[in-house]
Amino acid sequence: MQIPALSALATTMTGAGSGFLRKNGADTYTLDTSTYLTTNQTITLSGDATGSGSTGITVAIAASVVTGKLLTGYTSGSNTALAATDSILGAFGKVQGQLDAKIGATTSSAINITNATASTTTGTGALIVTGGVGIGGNANIGGNAVITGNLTVNGTTSTVNSTTVTIDDPIFTLGGDTPPGADDNKDRGIEFRWHNGTAAKVGFFGYDDSTGKLTFIPDATNTSEVFSGTIGEIDATIAGSNVTGAVTNANQLGGVAAASYALKARVYMVSDL
Questions:
Q1: What are the pLDDT digits (tens) for 122-133?
Q2: Does 198 fall in a domain?
Q3: Which residues contact 166 (CB under 8 A, 6 or more apart)?
Q4: Domain assignment of residue 121, yes or no
Q5: For residue 263, what pLDDT is reported?
Q6: Residue numbers of the domain that contains 83
């Protein structure tokens, strides 16, 4: 706008005081005091605010304007580092991409937890999982393992390298966790390792499936859970009268006729019959 000479303004301008000079028409002006800005005036903006110059403008934005703003156009980004040139939506996308890479459904990267918080319950420790955990490979535990529920092992071999084993159950069940449907012709019992001072041995005591009797074999051969070898000697006190077999030393029977008592294994009596 081209301002006319001051002498011309004196005859063409209406209004008095401080304000904005508004041009109404050709060489006609009005002093508009209604929109004149003074200190601490309030301006309502319906759109974006831009400006230039040396005059500063302080704007206070309500929290609800920021927290209630929708992330229109947001998409999950790649697992890359944030940059100073990223927009807010772009930065959020990169953060989401990094989280997906670390705790996504699948990851090919190793996860290392350096927190050393000890675990004494199912709700304590460096890593707490509320749901179940599936492990497709091996699991190595360097500390103690406490299982509060049941333990089921579906492998082919269970090895316990403990020096002391304590079991509350007074009964051991051998031969499976369900009733067998047929005779597998395998023995049932305990196989143990020992050394006679010259060589290592494998012994067995238990139920002989082929004879239907209990047996003890100190130097046994295990062929697919069927044991063979020379029957050993036991120290025992025998009570009862229904004992059959072959006695190797009648003197051990305390004067009782040898024909009345016969044992498959040699029996050393610790008391008379």
A1: 999 998 888 898
A2: yes
A3: none
A4: no
A5: 47
A6: 73-105
- Residue 267: how many other CB atoms lie within 10 Å: 21
What does the pLDDT average to over 44-56?
66
State how far the Cα of 93 lies from the Cα of 76, in Å rounded to an integer.
4
Tell me which of 84, 105, 126 is where a domain ends: 105
Nearest to 226 by CA among 240, 238, 239, 208: 208
Q: Are 104 and 98 in contact (CB under 8 A)?
A: no
Task: Tell me, yes or no, whether 4 lies in a domain.
Answer: yes
Where does a domain end: 105, 126, 150? 105
Q: Span 79-91, mean pLDDT?
A: 86
Instruction: Confirm whether 130 is domain-assigned.
Output: no
Separation between Cα atoms, residue 185 and residue 15, nearest integer Å: 121
| Residue 267 bridge partners (DSSP) | 234
Provide the domain count of the chain: 3
The answer to whether residues 99 and 111 touch, using CB atoms and an 8 Å cutoff, is no
Closest CA to 21 of 11, 12, 34, 30: 30
